[in-house]
Write a structure and sequence with these properties.
about 100 residues, 4-stranded antiparallel β-sheet, globular
């Protein structure tokens, strides 16, 4: 299983929810509504979920093994960090009158 594309769908600058992400696996399966969340100690990835009839949120899609979760989370957080750094660099260049 290889993540072949990561799309940052939405950046949220305030609050705990920081981004909404979509990934493509093996150029064949898309998973939407993955969330990047600011936890108390670090950023983490929350998989897409839905509220069941008891009002409890349950993941719709999730990795089975800890290694798979770690790999997916690492790739998503790397892409998110690069995207934020690029946005900051563009904003700084714009402020300096370079853009």
């Amino acid at each position: 299983m290889t993540i072949t594309d990561i799309k940052i769908r939405k950046i949220i600058p305030e609050g705990r929810l920081r981004a909404v992400i979509s990934i493509t696996i093996d150029d064949q399966i898309a998973i939407h509504d993955i969330k990047v969340v600011q936890g108390d100690a670090r950023l983490f990835v929350a998989m897409p979920s839905r509220k069941d009839e008891n009002g409890v949120f349950r993941d719709i899609v999730h990795p089975i093994s800890p290694d798979a979760r770690q790999s997916i989370e690492g790739q998503i957080l790397d892409a998110y960090t690069r995207h934020i750094e690029m946005m900051q660099a563009e904003a700084e260049a714009e402020q300096a009158g370079l853009i």
